[in-house]
Specification:
Shape: elongated
Number of strands: 54
Strand content: 25-35%
Oligomer: single chain
Domain TPPC8 first Ig-like: 684-757, 758-860
Pfam families: Ig_TPPC8_1st, TRAPPC-Trs85
InterPro entries: Ig_TPPC8_1st (IPR058541), TRAPP_III_complex_Trs85 (IPR024420)
Radius of gyration: 58 Å
Largest sheet: 7 strands, mixed
Structural class: alpha+beta
Protein name: TPPC8 first Ig-like domain-containing protein
Organism: Orchesella dallaii
């Protein structure tokens, strides 16, 4: 039968009750045992005042006590219990272990039930919904048992709350027939009481004992005789001290049966009594070292991230052995009726109201008179000594007061007030006594007075007016009492009693902060059970204070102490409570400790529900834990999972499904581990492949109804809203990156892929993969489907190995496309595109061609020309005779400049293909289906860069039964990267136009190779119609262009080259592809070349800059000597040659074109009119023909010696088009004063 939780007031009343001794005769006891009860058990459920009664204190104040409770003790079989802290500790541990918490599920706000409630806690910016237990029944049972054990401690001189105050003599009516019999029977029983009082004087509160006589009606005696016996007792001892009880012995009728049975509440007490009576048996069954002497190396603090094994358990299920539980199936109180219960209650009411309260009223007056009479005397010998010798209160030894001292009498009076409802008087006495005890340094008396003063104050606040008080609860009394109990008195049990009672008072007053502080203060290293209970109650107080972090911390600490005490189920419950706060809040060390400990405890208690969740949580990356700690987590996880016979989802290693790649129509790729530095290389160039394929299909494969680019590669950067398409029985590859996020190495075994049609899909098995800490590796799986339709990649299956444990795991393939952001709904909602890479469509069989490159060097020089072969082979595994390849198209960007398909050179290639060239593609018609087939090609490396990228697309057309209307095409993509190194570099510095068809150029050659000499074999123009007429270099003044190998350049050598060339056909005009080419080779031997190349430079822009309709040449002598003293002017004849590139009639006018400064003998000329002039023909009308030359002669006249510009400024007017052009020419000439012996020089 479950007990109702006690309130603070009820707890105090049940903890402090007057003890009444019971002496029962043998005959009376046999009458009671007919109901399966002894006398104390018969009356104990009704040992509380149920009517109104009153008494007066010595000051005449009328007290109306309520709920006075009594504890009846049969002293005939009573023995003073021995105080054994170890035994009591084991009993309390057993009691708590027999009341485990409910561990059906992990607490959550959604899973609340009748045993728990959901509480909303707020802390700064975080909100929590925590499920906390409504009651901690194990704490309530522990508290009840603990207080009961404390109440059995009698003989205390510092308090008298558990002392006997009266004696109840129980006699059968059949035992006494006369007054002499009454005297004899009562005399014998009184001797028993007196002997007990003599043997245990400290067990009785007062020297004079109240005796109450209860006569049990015996059915063997008629009622008149029993009534006569009762009247004899009333005559001898007074009517208020006697009572006769009549009980029914026959079977009661159904209507009179008691429901509920009031004695069922004694079942637990009876079980406890049996436990107490079997302490020696407990000692034999539960050794001390199994509970207390736990190896500390197995227990780490809950805040430590290096928590190892929780403490060892006492039994397999994590609690104290259940062998001590004593079932009680007896029917108590049989044949007793409702009338019997009323009679029993009447006995108690009359005993309290008519005998006990008046007796206590008299004793209070006596005690008060004794206190008043002794008030003027010295309080004690120690007090007098202290006044005489000045003993310090703080250093005084333990104090023992005399039985008749004022302090002891006052304490007895205060205890009587407290037990019988006069809480105001009790508080005043305790308050006064604490001062006296403090002055005498009587710390035990002082602590007890503080404790009872605080409890009396609380009971006053709960009383009805005018006794109620509104002052605050004296928490400092409680703290001071606990401190002195522990520090000075070394009485932890007394401090615990004070704490458990006063904290209930504080919780009733909603002062949870002080209650939590007291609970925390009661924790210590000497008792794990008490510390665990106190920490758990402190955590519950923090819930009421809206402090989630403190709640979680103290739950974890309580779980740790429960584990040390051997109570694994209670420990698991506390850790689960703290888990609700720590989970997902970023406190990783605490979260890992809680998860790991919960998993360990669940493993011990064999409750596997949710254990994998907690173990996996400790391995979530990134983790701040050390590698050693992660290794402990990982080992525990695998050892636990090895016992679970199923495949579990696990996130280690991290398989990045978003980076999954699928390769189609390729063969020969190795499976297993491979190096992949970048997953986006092919995806970035997908657009260029699609463009090439589109152009070729539209040009060569007709008719084309609707073009869809062929997808041979799928990655995260491409459009994955389309399904990968693979022909049946054809191999394709799936590549997945595996990342180890942990700080420990991982060993994976038997890695494979699982599809929905597993029996019709062949997948390669990767036997092992070793991943170092935080290392990433990629695996390639080969897949062949024999099923036409859609196959879905569901999971990646693998095994993890650690220390001999091999456990299977899997990871479900989850793909999600990029987030959509096009419409308003997509922007405001979290919508994502589809990703269909794991849903592969298998179509009917198709022919599969494989292309390889042969003969291409592994490295090239800039502008090197290399020959290679494209080898086509039929890679179809299961032949399809109705499917044939009709044509193959080879294409690439800028194909005419990079790659050329050579003419057929052998009978093999000519019989297999017929070649047709197109713009940027070459079409090869298949004449015969042979495999393999070579296609000769040539590749020219670029003249710059570190790598040459050769991206070749082959498109082959497939016919079904040679039906043109049923055609398909497939593609082969070849992407080759070749490292490059520099060779011959070409630069030009200047170009000059000599006449309309003749040009002069200056360029520079560099041999940039490191180890080779380069032979320049030819220098020519493209187009080839431009003729190089003369060639010379700095080391070869005259080089014959007809010679093979015109020059040799050593490594790191450079040379200047001057060349003259002629444009007979006017090809240089507006030619954007005019290049100067240098053919070179590196000789490997006399008959073999290591490399052959052709470097070029575009000179179109340079040619355009010097292009003109006319080219002028000025001919004259360089220096003229004249006697300027004899003649005023000096004259020189100048010829002007006009080269025309066009035909027509032109008007030509010549003018003097002065330089910036004319230099004369007298300094810079003033350019005055008459100093320099032109004479002769200065104006002419000429009819010119294209590519012909005309000559005009004019005179150049100067007046002073100096350096002049003899070339004129020419204005040409086209008479037909009306276009005028001006040209400024420069040609220096020197005029000098002639000496008589120096002739003129030309």
């Amino acid at each position: 039968m479950e007990e109702v939780p006690l309130k603070a007031k009820d707890l105090i009343l049940s903890s402090f009750s007057s003890r009444v001794a019971v002496i029962s005769s043998t005959t009376a006891d046999s009458l009671i045992r007919q109901h399966n009860l002894n006398f104390t058990q018969l009356i104990q459920p009704f040992a509380r005042l149920s009517t109104e009664a009153s008494w007066q204190d010595p000051n005449g104040l009328l007290i109306w006590p309520k709920d006075i409770s009594l504890t009846f003790v049969d002293i005939g079989s009573w023995k003073k219990p021995e105080v054994d802290a170890q035994r009591n500790r084991r009993i309390l541990t057993n009691i708590v272990g027999q009341n485990p918490p409910t561990l059906s599920a992990i607490p959550s706000a959604e899973s609340s039930n009748g045993d728990s409630k959901t509480v909303e806690l707020n802390n700064k910016d975080l909100d929590y919904q925590v499920q906390v237990p409504v009651r901690t029944t194990w704490y309530e049972v522990w508290r009840k048992t603990f207080l009961k054990l404390q109440s059995e401690v009698v003989g205390n001189q510092h308090e008298f709350l558990n002392h006997f105050v009266a004696c109840l003599l129980v006699i059968s009516s059949s035992e006494v027939k006369s007054s002499e019999d009454v005297a004899n029977v009562v005399g014998k029983m009184s001797k028993i009481q007196q002997q007990h009082q003599y043997d245990h004087p400290n067990s009785w509160m007062l020297p004079s004992v109240l005796k109450y006589y209860l006569i049990i009606h015996d059915k063997s005696v008629n009622e008149q005789e029993s009534e006569q016996v009762y009247q004899n007792f009333r005559t001898m001892y007074g009517g208020n001290f006697c009572h006769m009880l009549k009980l029914v012995v026959d079977e009661a009728s159904d209507t009179e049966i008691l429901v509920p049975n009031p004695w069922k509440i004694l079942l637990l007490d009876q079980e406890d009594s049996l436990i107490f009576s079997k302490r020696e048996e407990i000692d034999g069954k539960v050794p001390v070292d199994e509970i207390e002497n736990i190896v500390q190396s197995d227990l780490l603090h809950p805040l430590s991230p290096d928590s190892e094994n929780p403490p060892s358990v006492i039994s397999q299920n994590g609690d104290i052995s259940n062998s001590l539980k004593i079932p009680c199936n007896m029917e108590l109180g049989t044949s007793l009726t409702i009338q019997d219960v009323r009679r029993i209650q009447l006995v108690i009411n009359e005993f309290i109201s008519k005998a006990l309260l008046p007796y206590m009223e008299r004793q209070c007056r006596n005690l008060n008179e004794s206190i008043v009479n002794r008030r003027g005397m010295s309080k004690s010998f120690f007090s007098a000594t202290k006044r005489l010798f000045g003993t310090s209160a703080k250093s005084a030894p333990s104090v023992v007061y005399a039985t008749e001292s004022v302090e002891i009498l006052s304490r007895k009076l205060g205890d009587i007030y407290f037990l019988y409802g006069h809480y105001g008087g009790a508080y005043q006495l305790y308050h006064q006594l604490k001062k006296d005890f403090y002055g005498d340094a009587a710390w035990l008396y002082y602590s007890s007075a503080l404790e009872l003063a605080a409890i009396s104050h609380f009971m006053m606040s709960q009383s009805e007016p005018p006794l109620a008080v509104a002052r605050a609860f004296p928490v400092h009394y409680v703290n001071d009492a606990i401190g002195h109990y522990i520090d000075q008195c070394r009485m932890v049990d007394a401090a615990t009693r004070c704490a458990v009672i006063c904290t209930e008072c504080l919780k009733h007053l909603e002062n949870n902060a002080e209650a939590a502080a007291i609970f925390i203060r009661m924790t210590s290293e000497d008792c794990d059970l008490r510390s665990a209970l106190m920490l758990e109650q402190a955590a519950n107080s923090f819930v009421e204070m809206d402090s989630p972090r403190k709640y979680a911390l103290h739950c974890v600490l309580a779980g740790y102490r429960y584990a040390k005490a051997g109570l694994k189920s209670h420990s698991l419950n506390c850790y689960r409570q703290g888990y609700q706060i720590y989970n997902g809040k970023g406190w990783r060390y605490a979260e890992d400790h809680v998860n790991f400990t919960i998993a360990r405890l669940q493993n011990i208690l064999q409750t596997p529900e949710g254990i994998t969740k907690h173990l996996m949580a400790t391995l979530v990356a990134p983790s701040p834990q050390s590698s050693q700690q992660i290794q402990i987590f990982y080992k525990e996880f695998l050892s636990t999972m090895a016992n679970i016979k199923s495949v579990h989802e696990f996130f280690v290693p991290q398989i990045k499904f978003v980076d999954m790649q699928i390769r189609i129509a390729v063969a020969g790729l190795p499976t297993g581990e491979f190096h992949c530095s970048n997953y986006d290389d092919i995806g970035a160039s997908s657009t260029s492949w699609d463009s090439l394929e589109s152009n070729v299909v539209r040009e060569c494969i007709k008719p084309v109804i609707k073009f869809k680019p062929t997808r041979l590669f799928f990655s995260r950067l491409l459009d994955n809203t389309v399904h990968p398409t693979v022909p049946c029985d054809e191999q394709f590859f799936i590549e997945l990156p595996f990342y180890n996020p942990l700080k420990i190495p991982l060993g994976l075994r038997n890695i494979t892929l699982k599809f929905d049609y597993s029996d019709m899909v062949e997948v390669t098995l990767v036997p092992n993969l070793e991943l170092e800490p935080e290392e990433s590796k990629s695996l390639r799986f080969s897949v062949i489907s024999h099923h036409v339709g859609m196959i879905i990649l569901e999971t990646v299956n693998y095994e993890l190995e650690f220390s001999g444990n091999i456990v299977p795991f899997q990871q479900t393939v989850v793909l999600r496309g990029p987030r959509l952001n096009n419409t308003k709904a997509e922007r405001f909602g979290k919508l994502y595109a589809k990703d269909l890479r794991n849903k592969i469509v298998i179509i009917n069989k198709l022919p599969l061609l494989q292309a390889n490159v042969e003969g291409l060097p592994n490295a090239l020089f800039h502008t090197q020309i290399a020959n290679f072969d494209i080898v086509l082979s039929d890679n179809t595994k299961s032949k399809t005779p109705d499917m044939t390849v009709s044509q193959v198209i080879i294409t690439m960007d800028n194909m005419e400049r990079a790659v050329q398909v050579l003419p057929e050179q052998t009978s093999e290639t000519s019989s297999a293909f017929s070649k047709t060239n197109g713009k940027n593609f070459t079409r090869l018609k298949c004449e015969k289906n042979e495999s393999p087939t070579k296609i000769p090609c040539v590749f020219k490396a670029p003249q710059a860069g570190d790598t040459a990228e050769l991206d070749i697309l082959l498109v082959y057309e497939i016919l079904h039964n040679n039906d043109v209307s049923k055609k398909a095409h497939r593609v082969i993509r070849m992407s080759i990267q070749i490292p490059l190194s520099p060779a011959v570099h070409l630069e030009y510095s200047s170009l000059k136009m000599l006449d309309c068809i003749t040009y002069l150029g200056l360029m520079r050659l560099y041999n940039l190779t490191v180890d080779y000499s380069v032979i320049i074999s030819k220098i020519f123009f493209s187009p080839s119609d431009i003729e190089v007429t003369e060639l010379c270099s700095s080391s070869h003044p005259e080089v014959k262009i007809e010679e093979a190998g015109i020059m040799k350049m050593n490594k790191n050598e450079s040379r200047n080259i001057v060349l003259k060339f002629r444009d007979q056909k006017n090809l240089l005009k507006d030619n954007q592809r005019l290049t100067i080419n240098v053919a070179w080779h590196i000789a490997k031997s006399a008959t073999e070349n290591l490399a052959v190349g052709n470097s070029e430079i575009n000179v179109s822009e340079a040619i355009s800059s010097i292009q003109s309709s006319f080219v002028f040449q000025v001919k004259h002598v360089n220096k003229v000597y004249a006697d300027f003293g004899e003649s005023t002017n000096c004259t020189c004849e100048v010829e002007l040659l006009i080269h025309s590139k066009t035909s027509g009639n032109f008007s030509i006018q010549l003018e003097y074109n002065p330089p910036k400064n004319d230099i004369t003998l007298t300094g810079p000329s003033t350019r005055a009119s008459g100093q320099v002039s032109l004479g002769g023909v200065t104006t002419a009308l000429l009819e010119l023909q294209a590519l012909q030359t005309k000559t005009i002669k004019y005179l150049f006249i100067v007046a002073w010696p100096g350096v002049y510009n003899a070339a004129p400024k020419i204005t040409v007017m086209d008479e037909e088009r009306g276009v005028q052009e001006s040209y400024s020419l420069h040609s220096p000439i020197i005029f000098a004063q002639a000496l008589s012996s120096v002739p003129s020089s030309s």
